[in-house]
Amino acid sequence: MQTIIKLIGTNHLGERSYYRKIRQILHECTLVLHENLPLETRDDLQEDLIEYRASMSKSPLTEAFLSAISAYFMATNLYFSNTMTRESAAFQNEISHRSWLRITSIAWEDSERHLIEKCSQLSRDRKTEVLNYVKQALEVIEKRLYTREEYAHAFVFFWADESMRSIFDGILTNNACMQILNIHLEKQTRGCIGIKFGAAHISKLRNSLEAKGFVHRKSIKLCCVAYS
After folding, report:
1. In this structure, how many other beta carbons lie within 10 angstroms of the beta carbon of residue 65?
2. Residue at 221 is within a domain
3. Cα separation, 68 vs 138, whole angstroms
4. Is residue 34 part of a domain?
């Protein structure tokens, strides 16, 4: 039996049943490499949201665009906190376990600088479109009128664009993940290893695994949010 890799791309907000299924998938893994998930309180999110919203209005376009992305996901995390679950809370018990290894080798300053550099590939019109989209969404959220359907459609708006996905593919963290995986593969030639990262990372991580000789065998679709 060779080592099996279970690669899971997750959303940072979802139904409880969604995270329960992910836990079930990863249950047999002897090691899980996962993206850093800060355990922010509601007060932390509200404080950061105020800061990012201010940056959306005062910063140059690229910085305002990045602040808008952060502000949107913080605002929706707060807005849906009573009806959905944050990923950091859903896996709070698991990430404290010795078999779950957090990938935290990237300095925030390097990550931020890297994002700003990659934003140069995105057109001014697209940055402005995203900025305006988030401003309108935040207004609807403030009126308590934002729906799950709008939340789901926002993912299409953001991530159907290949150039957007390439900016947030997390290549620096992905590389760190692969380096740590290599160390463990040298020790562990059998069994199951899980890799649980944000969905934007998964395409590049899969390419890296295939470059190592791993062959894709099976896919499972998971629904993070349901609406009618």
Report:
1. 24
2. no
3. 10
4. yes
User: What residues make up the domain containing 121?
Assistant: 4-211
Query: Would 173 be classed as within a structural domain?
Result: yes
* Cα dihedral across residues 210, 212, 218, 221: positive or negative: negative
Six token digits for residue 189: 């030639």
Model pLDDT for residues 131-176, shown as the tens digit of each residue: 999 999 999 999 999 999 999 999 889 988 888 888 887 777 888 8
pLDDT tens per residue, range 95-105: 878 889 888 65
CA-CA-CA-CA dihedral for 11, 155, 146, 143, to nearest 10: 100
Residue 157 lies inside a defined structural domain of this protein? yes
pLDDT classification of 54: cutoffs 50, 70, 90: very high
Give the position of tokens 């969604």: 18
pTM: 0.84
Number of domains into which the chain is organized:
1
